[in-house]
Write a structure and sequence with these properties.
This is Protein ATEB1 homolog 2. The chain has about 270 residues and is an all-alpha fold. It is about 60% helix and about 0% strand.
């Protein structure tokens, strides 16, 4: 079971678009950003789809706008984890801030877990819209990012996100006539587009750094293995170290390592004869 998935697991290299497609297809939603799932309602319904009837959907607030309401959703989710004996701690305080990377990592874990239970096959008998209506409120879920003060503050701090642009639009007419003209509207559109691009670039950088760390850790493990007393003097270990310690990044050390290994093996055959 995937309840304990290491940070270097391939689950954490699933892209943002794939995660959004997974959520939208299964729950019949139209999320366009990872942060829109920050309220915890999506996660609760994913567990409800995986284990029908286990989640008290009438308690899940798909219209959560404040951190308090979001925390209540995550409490429901943690209770479900405890009931199912899933050893996964939910970093609620980080998730409700709406930071894309934190929420992406949790959704990557959730996808891996749900796929481990149902083999990645969608439950055709599950009606997500009907289940969202169980709570009595209007469940046309569109995420809580635009109305959560904490998420707005976070986006302003990180990348002057598009939601802060929305706030500017609502207060713009009070600040002067310039904001009401065509030029002002065009500028706001440009700012919103650039803000989205910056957010996506930051997310891409985060994922690339994680991938870099993953492969660096692999190389470090190989290096440690080659340095063990039992192996460090073996020709194959020395050949591997020639590749690892090659100084010129523009020249492949593979040929040199292969030549060294061939000579070492040839010498060993001669000594054996």
């Amino acid at each position: 079971m995937a309840s304990n998935i290491g940070m270097m697991d391939s689950a954490y290299f699933v892209g943002r678009n794939e995660i959004l497609t997974w959520i939208n297809n299964r729950l019949q939603l139209s999320l366009s950003r990872i942060e829109e799932a920050a309220s915890g309602a999506v996660q609760c319904q994913m567990m409800d789809m995986t284990y029908p009837g286990v989640v008290p959907m009438h308690k899940v607030n798909f219209d959560a706008k404040t951190e308090y309401d979001m925390i209540q959703n995550y409490k429901i989710l943690q209770d479900v984890f405890n009931k199912l004996k899933i050893e996964k701690h939910v970093e609620v305080n980080r998730l409700v801030k709406g930071r894309p990377l934190d929420n992406l990592e949790f959704l990557q874990w959730l996808k891996r877990y749900c796929d481990s239970v149902n083999g990645g096959v969608m439950n055709e008998n599950y009606n997500p819209v009907e289940r969202r209506c169980k709570g009595g409120k209007d469940r046309s879920y569109r995420g809580s990012l635009k109305t959560s003060k904490s998420l707005q503050a976070n986006n302003i701090h990180n990348s002057a996100g598009s939601d802060s642009v929305g706030l500017y639009k609502s207060s713009g007419p009070k600040q002067g006539k310039g904001c009401t003209g065509v030029g002002g509207a065009d500028s706001l559109v440009d700012i919103e587009a650039l803000s989205k691009e910056v957010t996506e670039l930051k997310l891409s950088v985060d994922l690339l750094e994680k991938e870099r760390d993953f492969y660096f850790a692999k190389l470090r493990d190989v290096e440690i293995l080659c340095q063990t007393p039992e192996l460090e003097d073996l020709p194959v270990a020395n050949a591997i170290k020639k590749i690892l310690y090659a100084a010129d990044a523009n020249v492949s050390a593979l040929e040199e390592a292969q030549e060294y290994l061939a000579k070492a093996m040839s010498a060993a055959d001669t000594d054996g004869d």
